[in-house]
Design a protein that fits this description.
six-stranded mixed beta sheet, transmembrane, alpha/beta, single chain, binds pyridoxal-5'-phosphate
Length: about 220
C-alpha cells in the first residue's frame, strides 16, 4: 500500500533508513491492531526468561502480553507522584545494576491510564539510557493525537527503538482493527522475524480495513 506508507511517512521526520522500514512494513505487514503489534514485538524480541521494564501506572494489556508469552520477570518502575512521568533515574540505575540486562523497556505516550504525556527531553533520556544499556525501547503511541494545551506529541527514532501506532483512537476506527509498527530497518534480521510472527498470526489486517485507514489518512 504505497499511498498508505507515504501518508504515514509524511507525519514524521525520518531518516532514509527508517523511511525504508516504514514503507517495507506498511507495504507488507500492517497489523490487525496495536495489541497484536505489541504481542508481535514481544514474540520477536523476547525469550521466555527475559526481564522487561514497564512503569506504573502501566497499561494492563501490555503486562498481560508479557505474561502470556512467558516473560514473567516484569520490573515495574515508579512514576513521579505528581506528574506520573516514568522515573528515568530509577531506569538508569536498574539497567546498570540488573544482570542480565532487561531485554526491553516499554512506555505509553501519552499514557494509559496516567493520561499524561512524556516530554520530549525525558523521552530522549529514556531512549539514551536504553541505548547505553543495549536494551530495546518500545513506545506505544496509541494516543498520539490526544495532546492538549498546545503540547505536541513527539516520537524518538533510533536503531534500538520500535514505535507502535493505532488507527483505533487516532482515526476513530476501533472495530476495524488496524495499527502499524515503525522499526529500524538497519537491524539485521528484525524485519524477517517481525514478518514471521505476523505471518503466523493474522497474516495481514483485513484489506477493507486497510483501505478505510488509507482513506482516513488522506481525507482533507
Ligand atoms: C495504551 C493502549 N495501547 C493499545 C491499545 C489497543 O489499541 P488497538 O485498538 O489498536 O488494539 C489501547 C486501547 O485501549 C491502549 O489504551
Amino acid at each position: 500500500m504505497q499511498q498508505h506508507s507515504t501518508g504515514i511517512l509524511s507525519r514524521f521526520k525520518l531518516t532514509s533508513t527508517v523511511v525504508l522500514a516504514f514503507m517495507l512494513h506498511c507495504l507488507t505487514t500492517i497489523l490487525a491492531k496495536i495489541l497484536q503489534a505489541f504481542v508481535n514485538i514481544v514474540l520477536t524480541l523476547c525469550d521466555a526468561q527475559d526481564s522487561v521494564v514497564m512503569f506504573a501506572p502501566y497499561y494492563f494489556n501490555s503486562y498481560m502480553s508479557f505474561q502470556m508469552t512467558g516473560v514473567t520477570d516484569i520490573l515495574v518502575g515508579p512514576g513521579d507522584l505528581n506528574t506520573l512521568y516514568p522515573d528515568a533515574d530509577w531506569l538508569e540505575a536498574t539497567l546498570q545494576q540488573r544482570k542480565p540486562t532487561p531485554k526491553l523497556v516499554t512506555v505509553v505516550n501519552p499514557g494509559n491510564p496516567s493520561g499524561t504525556y512524556i516530554p520530549a527531553p525525558l523521552l530522549q533520556r529514556i531512549s539514551d539510557i536504553c541505548k547505553k544499556a543495549g536494551c530495546w525501547l518500545v513506545v506505544d503511541n496509541t494516543y498520539e493525537y490526544f495532546m492538549y494545551d498546545s503540547r505536541k506529541h513527539v516520537c524518538v527514532e533510533d536503531d534500538h527503538i520500535v514505535n507502535i501506532f493505532s488507527f483505533s483512537k487516532a482515526y476513530g476506527m476501533m472495530g476495524w482493527r488496524v495499527g502499524y509498527i515503525a522499526y529500524p530497518s538497519e537491524v539485521k534480521g528484525l524485519a524477517e522475524q517481525l514478518l514471521k510472527v505476523q505471518d503466523n498470526i493474522p497474516i495481514c489486517a483485513s484489506v477493507i480495513s486497510q483501505q478505510l485507514a488509507l482513506r482516513k489518512m488522506t481525507a482533507k
